[in-house]
Specification:
alpha+beta, 3-stranded antiparallel β-sheet, 1 helix, 38% strand, DUF3467
């Protein structure tokens, strides 16, 4: 697979000749330190948010998580996303070391 940077993102050519153009003109970024997922038969829901419990939580305490993004995917897209996330984590750990619990 070959890659080249363009004005609006990245272009990749797959082994079968298909060209993917990743246009990031309208991309939005947000930070999450909490993520979870749930699913129905038709869709997966990835929920992202933040918690502010930096000092820890006493036993029996409460953690409030402010959800700020929900990504909805069909099962095939969710499976592809899971595979690329696993590969990305493996590459990260190879470069920077194992990620703790």
């Amino acid at each position: 697979m070959s890659e080249k940077n363009t004005t609006n993102g990245l272009t990749q050519t797959l082994p079968n000749g298909v060209e993917l153009v990743w246009n990031d003109t309208d991309i939005m970024s947000s930070y999450a330190n909490v993520a979870t997922a749930t699913a129905t038969q038709e869709e997966f829901f990835l929920l992202f948010g933040q918690h502010q419990s930096w000092k820890g939580v006493p036993e029996g305490g409460k953690v409030e998580i402010e959800l700020n993004n929900r990504m909805v995917m069909n099962p095939a897209a969710a499976k592809r996303f899971a595979a690329i996330l696993v590969r990305s984590l493996e590459a990260y750990e190879e470069r920077f070391g194992k990620i703790g619990g």
